[in-house]
């Protein structure tokens, strides 16, 4: 009646050992998964940290562009070129730091942002480019010539005739200060010079 007990004990021992091995294997798997999760979390933390640095650098780029736009108009082309090189260097650093973590879409977005900054800088430089001064308007031509000067009613006056060719006595016109021929008004007679004005234009004409 007692003979089969060793066989039962041997079978029970095998079952217990098998359960222990399964438990150890399961525990090892859990430890490995936990270690991997820790590594993944560390990678995620590093990625988050670099992304935060990217955001800070992008903010710095935006502030640099704003500072460029607020510069006075005396900024030279050399200053703008130096600033653009700084922006490109910063963008290259950001792209290099994220090359192992950021996806292709992220890098493409970064490149697009850098191109946008370049476009803004070009527009700011064009806005600061000095415009060519407007050509001065030529004064209207003299429609007459001074023939002589004389004293009338205690005031100096000048006699004028058409500017070209011969003239007849009835074409002579006597001008006192304040009189005008066309757009030209006689302001005063100073010695041997008559001063005429047409709008903002002033011309001094010698009296023969």
Structure description:
Keywords: Coiled coil, Membrane, Transmembrane, Transmembrane helix. The chain is 53% helix and 20% strand. With 208 residues, it is of the alpha+beta class. Among the domains are: 50-131, no CATH class; 144-206, no CATH class. A hairpin with a 2-residue loop joins strand 1 (144-152) and strand 2 (155-162). The longest helix has 65 residues, at 5-69. The termini are far apart. The relative contact order is 0.07. The model has no long low-confidence stretch (mean pLDDT 70).
Distance between the termini: 162 Å
Figure out the total of helices. 3
Q: How much strand content do the residues show?
A: 15-25%
Structure summary, number of beta strands: 7
Major beta sheet, specifics?
A: 4 strands, antiparallel
* Proportion of helical residues: 40-55%
pLDDT below 50 for ≥5 consecutive residues: which ranges? none
Q: Tell me the overall shape.
A: rod-shaped
Roughly what is the average pLDDT, rounded to an integer? 70
Instruction: Sketch the topology as an H/E string, one letter per element.
Output: HHHEEEEEEE
Strand order of the largest sheet: 4-5-6-7
Would you spell out the secondary-structure blueprint of this structure?
Elements: H1 5-69, H2 77-97, H3 104-128, E1 144-152, E2 155-162, E3 173-175, E4 180-181, E5 184-190, E6 193-198, E7 201-206
Antiparallel strand pairs: 1-2, 2-3, 4-5, 5-6, 6-7
Helix pairs in contact: 1-2, 1-3, 2-3
Keywords: Coiled coil, Membrane, Transmembrane, Transmembrane helix
Protein name: Secreted protein
Coiled coil: 37-127
């Amino acid at each position: 009646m007692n003979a089969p007990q060793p066989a039962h004990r041997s079978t029970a021992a095998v079952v217990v050992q098998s359960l222990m091995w399964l438990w150890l294997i399961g525990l090892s798997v859990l430890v490995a998964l936990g270690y991997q999760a820790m590594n993944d979390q560390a990678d995620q933390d590093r990625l988050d940290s670099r992304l935060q640095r990217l955001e800070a650098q992008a903010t710095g780029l935006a502030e640099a562009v704003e500072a460029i736009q607020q510069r006075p108009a005396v900024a030279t082309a050399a200053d703008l070129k130096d600033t653009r090189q700084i922006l490109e260097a910063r963008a290259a650093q950001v792209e290099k730091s994220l090359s192992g973590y950021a996806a292709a879409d992220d890098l493409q977005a970064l490149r697009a942002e850098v191109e946008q900054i370049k476009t803004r800088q070009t527009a700011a430089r064009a806005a600061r480019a000095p415009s060519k001064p407007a050509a001065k308007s030529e004064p209207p031509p003299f429609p007459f010539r001074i023939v002589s000067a004389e004293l009338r009613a205690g005031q100096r006056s000048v006699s004028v005739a058409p500017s070209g060719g011969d003239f007849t006595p009835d074409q002579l016109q006597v001008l006192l200060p304040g009189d005008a021929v066309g757009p030209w008004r006689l302001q005063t007679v100073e010695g041997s010079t008559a001063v005429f004005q047409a709008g903002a234009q002033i011309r001094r004409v010698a009296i023969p």
